[in-house]
């Protein structure tokens, strides 16, 4: 890079502080001084910003050297259009002729090209000699098909409805929506969620206690940091669950303490005495899939009341239930002791990065302060869009359509496995987007996962969801929601083929017919 020194810095530097527009540049100021208040020309040919530093008393030579160096280092990429001579001259505060002569010289040397109608560009192969050699192509290790759990069918994202909602919401938004906002998030979304959560999830959710977060991940992190700042040391977690969530808890300064899970869900009696909270997935235990039994729900609330602590209710996929009626949120039983958390990652897509927590009043100031210190608040434009999607009814319509789609997939998966093996042991299928498939005694899930990868199918075993030291059954967690519609049949066919090859499915336990829990 050409360095600036002495007085020339003030005289010739066209470098502008980040965030300032063209009209604030030297050229813009000069035009304003001359009484020209028109905006700088905005055509692509003339309105380009170019960071150039000039050094030395000979302006043209300095400009040539700076441009040459930009091309050599690859900073100015082959084919890139340069600003029109008039624009660059105005930005640098130098004569237009000087720029034209510098361009002409570099065209003659082969660094730049100039063609009538397409302006001056960096020559395509000018930097080839100095560019680093292209990295050797590494074959993609990712199998073509996936039945990994964790996300919905991304190809089913309601693009048209989202775009239409964004358009309506942004056109209607008041100007202040584009400024800094309440750390809780936009009132439009909190209002829409308050009504939705009360209607669809039976939660107690006043809009002023809802905090919009960037995914459940951020919500969990904020909650744990608040608990840690109040002196907490540990959070109890279900022994089967996301390693990611245990990591988030740990990174917030707390220690995750696993509690066992049986056929009725988390064993509440085992919450450790030192826990300031328990993280539960009551409507659909992740990943085993059973709901928390009514007695256990009551026990969890009693524990929180007695100990003065909180339950964090991760309601991640409650919208998807098939053979049973919706199970209402535990939070409604004790809104001052249960923090309800929902997310758009399953109903829409993880990329939306919107989740919501309903926070008990006594924790709200601390949570808002933590949120504000983390990112002030989330993207108001996305929040307005989701608010409009919910208010228009399109969110509910998408969920109902998706529920039907995933139910059919689940039925097809169960039928295909049933055709491949006599009565395979499948569980957790009354709800959600994944199923748990037990393997035969002696079979290792790692072998099955590796065999599937060899057939171009990504699978995950139960082991991925258990902390070290917790014994787990050899099983697959099959995310039937994951593949796009066109790949679903192939993915399931490959799964069945792998299982048949290896004879890995568990034989039925006695005469017990396996079915939805
Ligand atoms: C158990 C569980 N909770 C919550 C989430 C959602 O996390 P986030 O909102 O950060 O995407 C997921 C997503 O995979 C999940 O599996």
What is the CATH topology classification name of the largest domain?
A: Aspartate Aminotransferase, domain 2
CATH architecture heading of the largest domain: 3-Layer(aba) Sandwich
- CATH class of the largest domain, named Alpha Beta
Tell me the overall shape: globular
What is the count of helical runs? 15
Mean of the pLDDT scores? 88
The CATH homologous superfamily name of the largest domain equals Type I PLP-dependent aspartate aminotransferase-like (Major domain)
Strand content: 5-15%
C-alpha termini separation: 67 Å
Q: What is the domain total for the residues?
A: 3
* SS-derived structural category: alpha/beta
Work out the oligomeric state of the chains in this entry.
Answer: single chain
The radius of gyration over CA amounts to: 30 Å
- How many beta-strand segments? 16
Widest sheet: strand ordering: 4-12-11-10-9-5-6
Sheet of most strands: 7 strands, mixed
Which kinds of small molecule does this entry bind, naming each only once? pyridoxal-5'-phosphate
Q: What is the share of helical residues?
A: 25-40%
Low-confidence stretches are 1-45, 510-517
3D architecture notes:
There is one protein chain. The protein is of the alpha/beta class. It has three domains: 8-122, Winged helix-like DNA-binding domain superfamily/Winged helix DNA-binding domain (Arc Repressor Mutant, subunit A), CATH 1.10.10.10; 157-396, Type I PLP-dependent aspartate aminotransferase-like (Major domain) (Aspartate Aminotransferase, domain 2, 3-Layer(aba) Sandwich), CATH 3.40.640.10; 397-502, Aspartate Aminotransferase, domain 1 (Alpha-Beta Complex), CATH 3.90.1150.10. Helix content is 38%, strand content 12%. The chain has a seven-stranded mixed beta sheet, sandwiched between helices. The protein has a three-stranded antiparallel beta sheet with strand order 13-14-16, with no helix packed on it. Strand 13 and strand 14 form a beta hairpin. Helix 6 packs across helix 12 (380-391), helix 7 (187-201) crosses helix 12 and helix 8 packs across helix 11. The longest helix has 27 residues, at 394-420. It is globular, with a radius of gyration of 30 Å. It starts with 7 loop residues before the first helix and ends in a 15-residue tail after the last helix. Mean pLDDT is 88; it is low at 1-45 and 510-517.
